[in-house]
Amino acid sequence: MTTVAVKPATMAQALRRALRDAMAEDPSVHVLGEDVGTLGGVFRITDGLAAEFGDDRCTDTPLAEAGILGAAVGMAMYGLRPVVEMQFDAFAYPSFEQLISHVAKMRNRTRGAMPLPITVRVPYGGGIGGVEHHSDSSEAYYMATPGLHVVTPATVDDAYGLLRAAIASDDPVIFLEPKRLYWSKAPWSPDEPAEVAPIGRAVVRRRGSSATLITYGPSLPVCLEAAEAARAEGWDLEVVDLRSLVPFDDETVAASVRRSGRAVVVHESTGFGGPGGEIAARVTERCFHYLEAPVLRVAGFDIPYPPPMLERHHLPGVDRVLDAVARLQWETES
Amino acid sequence: MKESSTSVQEPPGAAGHLSHPPPAWRPRTDPAPLLPDPEPYRVLGTDAAAGADPALLLRLYAELVRGRRYNTQATALTKQGRLAVYPSSTGQEACQIAAALVLREQDWLFPSYRDTLAAVARGLDPVQALTLLRGDWHTGYDPHEHRIAPLSTPLATQLPHAVGLAHAARLKGDDVVALALVGDGGTSEGDFHEALNFAAVWRVPVVFLVQNNGFAISVPLAKQTAAPSLAHKAVGYGMPGRLVDGNDVVAVHTVLGEALARAGRGEGPTLVEAVTYRIDAHTNADDATRYRAGDEVEIWRAHDPLRLLEHELTARGVLDEDGIRKAAEAAETMAARLRDRMNAEPVLNPMDLFTHVYADQTVQLREQAAQLRAELDASAEEGSGEEPGEGSGEGRTEGSGEVR
Q: Rounded to two decimals, what is the model's pTM?
């Protein structure tokens, strides 16, 4: 192993580096969005790109999300590879008609003649003290739209690797960035970024034998912390980081649950109509005879995202995860 | 923002001076040159007609005759069950033909669902143009082949696409202009606003043609806008608005030509409002008598685009009875051929449902495709011949024994 300086980097730095490297390697990659140019984005993910590549490659657009995504469609039609930044989860909603009626469907509508390699970056989720409309977990809307890939990193390595994969994809990718992990740190070398599995592969972050926590994005650190705390209760929890909600890695998830026999899905998104219901159904369909207990969900409550002074009551935390694990019918164990 | 009142560095002179006008304000654009003319621009029936190139007029005439016949034929195909629906452009042929013929080979057309005639006049196979309305697929053609974007059903959503494509072409240094079509109802959509704003801010080589046919299905223009005209909306974006008689094919061709040339010179976008009229109902499924008086249609028939041009040409002696007959015969041949081809059952392959969702099929879609394959095979084994998608004249399904 070569000795590269592996200093701690933040997820934000890794995302920025991914954009920079993609733009340097491929002149068809264009970044556009609100405040992405001079300011470098409100989260500074595009910092320095306009200076390095020019305003035509990293463009401050008018403040209009449908227009941004609609223009990106036209740019992709002409052979460019646009990377769109939506400033916050809830600010992406005006672009939904373009997303659902055109971005997701264009390949299908044209029998493959007009694929749209567009990446839509969406900072999502809560936990940063944002006032209303700044903390939504909008992944279920995207998951319900065939034609989109939906991915979300939870680690610094994946932030770089998955964003590079998203930009390289010939299909539209919704790239959900857990904004409360932007400043999370891990040893990471921009000169030798870790290999990341292609879009569609989950990864086991922690091996365990008692039960599987199935999670993604902002809830991964919560689950890892819960798994550590669970050792005191005598539970050895496995933690699966989905990374890709669409396509869904049934294989990795089912293999884990078959080993452990119990599963809890953990996410910030609402429980009703949220990703957890789909995941629980898929696990049950594939692992029924291995399950010692029903698949449980720990999710955000079915409420509009709360104001910042109350959000800690809403977000799934370690205790709520452990409570769910405790309800996995351990009494059936001999 | 936290600011200490004592630590603020006051700008020079600020303490003693007061600026009554807002300091940063300046006029951004002189609105006067952007304003549309008070009356729609016309050529036919005016002195300007004398200067028009006879060869171009005859070409426009032949296309108008074909276009009118295309509309009546497509409407007839709905009655025969060969089209699921047809939104007719009868009465709007001048806009459709002028839009198609004014474009250069390398330019792009962004049509809405009512603009299949423009696509056909640009060179697209009419059967491919009508695929969406027959219902055997969504887009029946490769958009790159004739540089015609997919027919857009969601209103005005194609306009930002035109902006993005023309923007990309300019970034690449290509001499390409995009022409985007929209109706009067579509101008109320948010995407209309956003597209025009982006186009003007970025000085994109794009032209927006609003075919103001008076109605958004049943809703008249008066309930759609309070603007002086739709062309006036351009001024708010900082681009010129042009008002043209949409039934005067020469006038539309001229105005679009000027706007496209302007865009090609890098001078930015133009909004063109063509004043026209939808002679037919919204579609064959609509009943226009519920919302408009019959004499209104008759009034507009006196301003028929085909008759206007025909009158001009015969009055100038450029067109005679023989020429009229030949144009009608050519249109009839086109219609007969279209009818014959549309009477052939489209070949359907249900497995196509899964083919173009993603570049690489997901595991889940492979499983679902296998399920449908098994259902098709099972129904074939039963020998009923009643496969999903077959029967009731919906089209012929490929034999399920076919191996893909």
A: 0.94
